[in-house]
Recover the amino acids of this structure.
């Protein structure tokens, strides 16, 4: 203790200071018998990653002085096969009771060294890792003395814990052979198709009346210029046809209970007001039900804007969005329906329309779930300086898609909303709300706007002779396969690129033409460009229902609202909730190829537990020490994973843990006023020993 | 009406010296709306943010802080009627409250005249107080009108320093903070019975601020001229603002534009308080409208 007081900074001081613990920590017990801990310490060089700033020999020599350490060794790369062999051999040779590897982050190689420990004949949870790379050599590379001292501390702490580690057995739970996919855009459909093809019963839940999502609203796709509907429709049809997919359109996930392998999900099937043919059959209406004939639509007296057409085309209160919808089933918009009954008459013998239909709740059981809940456009009218919703001839890119699409409201003729004229000068404003640090827009890059704006420019050259396009951009991010080539192609077609963020757009009140103001930052001069039409490449944001949905599944989001993956690089489809995966844009902006790829990744990940049939859970559960539990129930409310409950045992209330739901976060264990909760692998004595090892240099 | 809200009235320079009607109307109209403006004795120039702030920030901080301290000594919040003054007095008060180092440096200077900035008062633009329903509000303005300005089309110029920089402003009244297309002054104009009109590039600068008028008058008038073209396009009967410096630039500026560019517009320019005075029944003489460079007669004929 005295020595530790003078510990810091200078090396000579530290050499004396690096404290030799005076007394061994209390021994772990095995089968009720006390066991003298014998810990092996293995120090990794990681090439020069660690050895470049940490004196490995000095650390090893120190490790040998730590009580309970029976063996210490070092190696270039302990994660390599010979490195791992050092661990397995040492366990046998030195009769070790636990291992400590001082190397990188446990996120990287904990599984590797656990396996090595197991192969040496120990329980795999008798292993502890000391991170001397990410949290030491990398950040202290200019302070070798300090780094070496810190490595000694880290190893001493790890040894203290390893001395008290216990054998644990991973728990296995069976997995329901069914999966849930929420959202039937291109990502959700792809995920469902993959799961179904792998023989897994898949429930595909979509909130709107038809599937296809945003992609079905697009005219063409970049850089191949495929017709979006043409490549999407076969997938939509496959979804409708697949015997393994149960399609639930116009439905919301209402409640989720359970855990990986055993999710109990309640689906709200919103009332279409229209019976499908099977539903009619079940009600005894032979040959009835909606066949999509559309007889009901002309007689409906209520006219509303069609959301699919971005409000630029009318629909009735009984509607389908467009002729190719899957499933082909009419839906009643209850907010607008006046229940006049004209549609019921028009429907006639099919008796498909039920104006009194109510929402239904369906319970399903699935092993894993994929969220593919997509995106909405950022409300670009919030950027007032661009005048969207104030100036008629300022439109969004999604409105452009509908206007240029042959099946859209103008049959593919791009027109100015103010007068129906064909525009001859069109400005495309990129980063409209993206890469925006004003607090009004989004700080991130929306990733696909550059490319679709290039495509838009191409489309007007294709359709309007003599047209001129201007792309106002910050950077053109043409990062994908054949994207840069596409960029050159559009340049050659005559598009003008002006590098500058648009400051302001003003309308000429007489002509309704627009003046686009910016600084051309390449030519270093101000720009006032008069154009006939402005297309804002609006940023994207998480779809409006994201927060509610993610909370049902216990999935977090990052600061920008997109759903949070388990690891941005190494586990992009997983989430921190076991058994719940992410596909498509809901995890962050993606173009179609990336969304489909992520969907296939998510489907593959979601099918693994189902094919294995059971999942192994890390045994870091909270355990109730029943004789100490007062049954106060405080922990039950604290648990973020609803893993705890009060149950009656021997005539009194005690807490019980549902181990499969417990994530081992320790919230309850840290709080319990009676010390009645034992956190496996992070038990109070183990943590106290670590703290003592640090503060007292190992003194107890 | 019983005055319920009392403020130390910071006059600034241009209003009392060039357009005394703004000062008198501010005091008289506010009284009818429950706002009492009392003299802030010993106040100096704000000092002008462009002229002083661009040359020596420390002088700007110290002089503005001195004006704030006068109000602190009266234990009264400040109300003012000029966007330039708002920039100086509000912003310096705000910065000194937040930044201890700056406050200490300024207090070092103020010590020489036995003053200390304590950060105990707030600074408001009178227009903001008139719009704020907790203080006055549009409905109260409407109720105070005895001579509605019916049949007139009035364009609004907000001025830059009042609203920008948006990130630094902390508005109390809801709806004021919008910088790209604000509409709250239009609501206040409509409350007087006039029709507010929108015009191209409403938020463009008048051309005067930031020292431009003092540094390069032709460039400054060029900006004003563009603004005038846009205003004439929508056939406004008058232009209103809440900044005497903007008023000077549009009013005297039209004469200078005539001299330098040979274009005549003849658009009357009135501070919102002058308009409010007219609507509350004050006479043109009381408002000193004869001191305006551009005759207000065509407008007055429509409303009197």
């Amino acid at each position: 203790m005295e020595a530790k007081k003078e510990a810091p900074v200078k090396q000579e001081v530290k050499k004396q200071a690096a404290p030799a613990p005076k007394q061994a920590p209390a021994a772990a017990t095995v089968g009720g018998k006390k066991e003298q801990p014998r810990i092996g310490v293995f120090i990794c060089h990681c090439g020069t990653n660690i050895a470049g700033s940490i004196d490995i020999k000095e650390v090893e020599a120190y490790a040998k002085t730590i009580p309970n350490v029976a063996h210490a060794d070092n190696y270039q790369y302990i994660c390599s096969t010979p490195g791992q062999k050092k661990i397995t051999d040492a366990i046998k040779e030195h009769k070790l009771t636990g291992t400590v590897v001082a190397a990188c982050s446990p996120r990287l190689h904990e599984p590797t060294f656990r396996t090595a420990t197991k192969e040496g004949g120990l329980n795999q949870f008798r292993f502890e890792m000391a991170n001397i790379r990410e949290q030491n050599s990398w950040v202290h590379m200019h302070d070798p003395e300090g780094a070496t001292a810190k490595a000694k501390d880290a190893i001493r702490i790890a040894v203290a814990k390893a001395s008290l580690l216990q054998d644990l057995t991973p728990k296995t739970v069976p997995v329901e052979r069914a999966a849930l996919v929420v959202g039937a855009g291109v990502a959700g459909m792809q995920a469902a198709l993959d799961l179904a093809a792998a023989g897994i019963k898949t429930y595909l839940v979509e909130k709107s009346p038809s599937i296809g999502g945003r992609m079905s609203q697009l005219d063409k796709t970049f850089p191949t210029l495929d017709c979006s509907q043409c490549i999407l429709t076969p997938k939509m049809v496959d979804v409708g046809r697949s015997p393994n997919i149960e399609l639930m359109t116009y439905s919301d996930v209402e409640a989720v209970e359970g855990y990986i392998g055993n999710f109990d999900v309640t689906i709200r099937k919103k009332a279409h007001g229209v019976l499908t043919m099977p539903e009619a059959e079940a009600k005894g209406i032979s040959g009835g039900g909606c066949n999509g004939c559309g007889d009901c639509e002309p007689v409906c007296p209520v006219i509303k804007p069609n959301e699919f057409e971005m409000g630029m085309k009318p629909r009735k209160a009984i509607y389908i969005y467009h002729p190719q919808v899957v499933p082909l089933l009419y839906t009643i918009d209850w907010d607008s329906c006046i229940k006049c009954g004209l549609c019921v008459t028009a429907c006639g013998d099919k008796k498909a329309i039920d104006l009194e239909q109510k929402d239904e709740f369906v319970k399903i059981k699935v092993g894993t779930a994929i969220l593919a809940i997509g995106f909405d456009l950022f409300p670009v009218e919030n950027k007032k300086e661009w005048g969207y919703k104030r100036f008629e001839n300022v439109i969004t890119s999604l409105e452009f898609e509908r206007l240029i699409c042959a099946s859209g409201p103008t049959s593919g003729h791009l027109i100015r909303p103010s007068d129906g004229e064909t525009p001859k000068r069109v400005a495309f404003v990129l980063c409209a709300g993206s890469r925006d640090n004003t607090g009004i827009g989004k700080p991130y890059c929306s990733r696909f706007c550059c490319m679709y704006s290039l495509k838009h420019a191409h489309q007007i050259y294709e359709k309007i002779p003599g047209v001129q396009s201007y792309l106002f951009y910050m950077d053109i991010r043409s990062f994908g396969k054949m994207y840069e080539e596409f960029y050159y192609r559009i340049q050659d077609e005559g598009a003008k690129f002006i590098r500058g963020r648009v400051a302001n757009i003003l309308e000429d009140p007489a002509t309704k033409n627009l003046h686009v103001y910016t600084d051309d930052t390449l030519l270093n001069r101000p720009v006032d460009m008069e154009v006939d039409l402005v297309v804002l490449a609006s940023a994207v944001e998480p779809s409006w229902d994201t927060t509610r949905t993610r909370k049902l599944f216990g999935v977090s989001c990052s600061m920008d609202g997109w759903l949070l993956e388990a690891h941005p690089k190494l586990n992009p489809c997983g989430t921190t909730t076991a058994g719940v995966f992410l596909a498509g844009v809901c995890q962050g902006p993606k173009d179609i190829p990336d969304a489909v790829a992520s969907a296939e990744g998510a489907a593959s990940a979601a099918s693994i537990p189902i094919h294995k049939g059971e999942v192994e859970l890390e045994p870091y559960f909270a355990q109730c020490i029943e004789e100490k539990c007062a049954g106060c129930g405080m922990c039950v409310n604290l648990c973020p994973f609803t893993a705890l409950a009060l149950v009656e045992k021997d005539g009194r209330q005690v807490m019980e843990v549902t181990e499969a739901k417990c994530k081992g976060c320790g919230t309850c264990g840290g709080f319990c006023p009676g010390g009645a909760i034992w956190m496996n692998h992070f038990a109070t004595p183990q943590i106290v020993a670590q703290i003592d090892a640090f503060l007292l240099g190992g003194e107890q | 009406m019983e005055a319920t809200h009392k403020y130390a009235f910071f006059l600034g320079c241009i209003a009392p010296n060039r357009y005394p009607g703004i000062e008198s109307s501010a005091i008289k109209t506010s009284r009818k709306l429950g706002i009492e403006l009392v003299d802030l004795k010993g106040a100096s120039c704000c000092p002008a943010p462009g002229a002083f702030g661009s040359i020596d920030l420390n002088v700007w901080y110290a002089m503005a802080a001195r004006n704030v301290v006068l109000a602190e000594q009266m234990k009264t919040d400040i109300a003012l009627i000029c966007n330039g003054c708002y920039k100086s007095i509000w912003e310096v008060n705000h910065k000194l409250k937040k930044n201890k180092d700056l406050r200490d440096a300024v207090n070092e200077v103020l010590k020489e005249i036995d003053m200390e900035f304590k950060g105990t008062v707030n600074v408001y633009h009178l227009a903001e107080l008139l719009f704020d329903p907790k203080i006055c509000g549009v409905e109260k303005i409407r109720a105070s009108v005895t001579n509605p300005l019916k049949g007139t089309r009035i364009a609004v110029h907000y001025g830059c320093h009042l609203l920008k920089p948006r990130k630094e402003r902390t508005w109390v009244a809801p709806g004021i903070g919008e910088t790209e297309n604000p509409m709250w002054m239009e609501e206040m104009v409509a409350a007087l019975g006039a029709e507010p009109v929108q015009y191209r590039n409403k938020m463009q600068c008048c051309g005067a601020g930031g020292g431009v008028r003092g540094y390069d008058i032709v460039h400054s008038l060029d900006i004003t001229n563009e603004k005038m073209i846009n205003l004439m396009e929508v056939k406004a009967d008058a232009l209103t603002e809440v900044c005497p410096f903007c008023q000077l630039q549009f009013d005297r500026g039209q004469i200078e534009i005539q001299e330098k560019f040979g274009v005549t517009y003849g658009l009357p320019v009135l501070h919102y308080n002058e308009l409010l005075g007219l609507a509350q029944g004050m006479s043109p003489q009381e408002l000193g409208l004869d001191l305006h460079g551009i005759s207000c007669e065509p407008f007055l004929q429509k409303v009197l």
In short: The mean pLDDT of chain B is 94.
